[in-house]
Amino acid sequence: MKKDALIIFAKNPIKGKVKTRLAITLGNDKAFEVYTKLFSLTYEHTKNLKHDKYLYLTESIDDNLFDKNYKKKLQWGSDLGIRMFNAFKELFDLGYKKIVLVGTDVPSLTEKIIKEAFEKLNTFDIVIGPSNDGGYYLIGLKKPFEYLFLNMTWGDEKVLQETIKRIKEYNTSYYLIKELIDIDDEKDLEFLNS
User: Fold this and answer.
1) At what angle do helices 111-120 and 28-46 cross, to 10 degrees?
2) How far is residue 102's CA from residue 120's CA, in Å, rounded to a whole number?
3) Rounded distance between C-alpha atoms, residue 70 and residue 95, angstroms
4) In the predicted model, is pLDDT for residue 1 greater than 70?
5) How, if at all, do strands 52-57 and 99-102 pair?
6) Of 30, 74, 150, 167, which is most buried, counting CB atoms within 10 Å of its CB?
7) Residue 134 maps to which CATH number?
8) How many separate domains does the chain show?
């Protein structure tokens, strides 16, 4: 039987293609520096986890990113929601029973929080880690619930609210773990350096 799987959704670290909102005010060099720091922190916070780990990248598979314990895959789909759903579906089809997906924009994400998400999936169908911008930094599932991902306005401050509304409409059980800061623009940078 398959173990649990952790998905890390990440952009390939390419200058000019990462942290584009930050780049508007700080320039591409600083935005790239911030992204690579966040990318490294995500690695540090996940490298000791015993779950099967998958790094889903946007541009190309790069085996030099993270280490050999992370299987590398490509994201595919027309928007973020479809790409996330496709990743979940691909791994559920491989036989995983519990899958947690995280991004790379949350410097205070910890191994403990990810472990809590997997643990809560023993009781709940869905686990969500809310972020301060109205979205979420983590979502854990026991099944590929397509309704969570289709026709969502990603990047909107109502993503979490809309997600919970859909969960309730489908009578699915869910659990919210600790809210964390998502680094999107210049005002968030103080949390990266604290």
Assistant:
1) 60
2) 15
3) 18
4) no
5) unpaired
6) 167
7) 3.90.550.10
8) 1
Which residues sit opposite 34 in a β-bridge? Answer: none
**Domain interval for residue 47:** 5-193
Alpha-carbon gap, residue 192 to 183, rounded angstroms: 8
**Unique residue bearing structure tokens 């911030």:** 34
Closest alpha carbon to 9 in 106, 93, 94: 106
Express each pLDDT in 83-127 by its tens digit: 999 999 999 999 999 999 999 999 999 999 999 999 999 999 999
Give one DSSP letter per residue of 146-194, joined into a string: GGGTTT--TTSTTHHHHHHHHHHHTT--EEE---B----SGGGHHHHH-
Q: Which residue type is seen at 68?
A: K
The full DSSP string for 34-56 is HHHHHHHHHHHHHTT--SEEEEE
